[in-house]
Amino acid sequence: MPAAANRLVVGAAQFGQQYGRSGKPAPTDAAVEAILRLAADLGCAAIDTARAYGGSEAAIGRARRADAGAELPIVTKIRPLTEADERSGVAAAVAESLAESLEQLGAERVDTVLLHRAADLARCGAAAGEALQAACEAGLIARWGVSVADPAEFVRALTAAGLGYVQLPFNLVDRRWLTAEVQNAVSARPEVVIVARSAFLQGILLDPGAGLWPAGAEPAASTVSAALTALASETDRSRAGLCLGYVLAQPWIDAVVVGVRSAQQLAEVAAACAEAPLTAEECEWLESAIPPGSRKLVNPALWPERAREAS
Hints:
With 311 residues, the protein is of the alpha/beta class.
């Protein structure tokens, strides 16, 4: 089993729907079964899905019924909550979404359920957390949490009573999370599991070519490419291994979620995880060679359309 596979969460956003803006079709049921069987064999930490991921939960459910990956812990997300849910009742909306997830997944319970957006926790306040805590007490889930997009959301989320899990974007150019404010908030909640996504920054860190790099983003693609090439040569690591190795070297990161579309891709990601983590000295070298990314780089919502499509 590749080392560090138990810190790898298999991202399933592309199961059951076209993959992002690329238009790639969803993996077949046979491909999903192969992915989940390999994930179980590797000892991966979990499979990550959501109500909002099209047919992802249903595809996982079909694979589980075919005895593929049924032992894998599941992380799913409540559908994004709306103002109508606030008016009609947050608890009912959360319960309904969770019931739909369990039915689609073919599971009596799941390990972790997240609010899909930090805005749902901020707007719905204690009601959302209380509804998920009630699901914990009913034995439907083991813990609940939230997916966040920026450090301010993260710090606010860590003040929520009962919170047990946070998913956030983090990679070797996104240093927003390394501030004293954020790290102090993390230290105050050591029981919360923290899982990083976007380790490859939608793929552009694996090949920082000028054609994919967002216009106006800093540092330049050439700076990042040169640093990764140099460190890869020095350490005999792949670029994927450097990206994952930097994320997994952070003592406050428990696991990393990476989306895959085939068992071959999962095997490649697991092999890259086997190169991780970087040493403290390698992290320092990388941080000195690559300046922190600007907002135009670390936030894909600010990318020009062409860069998002290419990635």
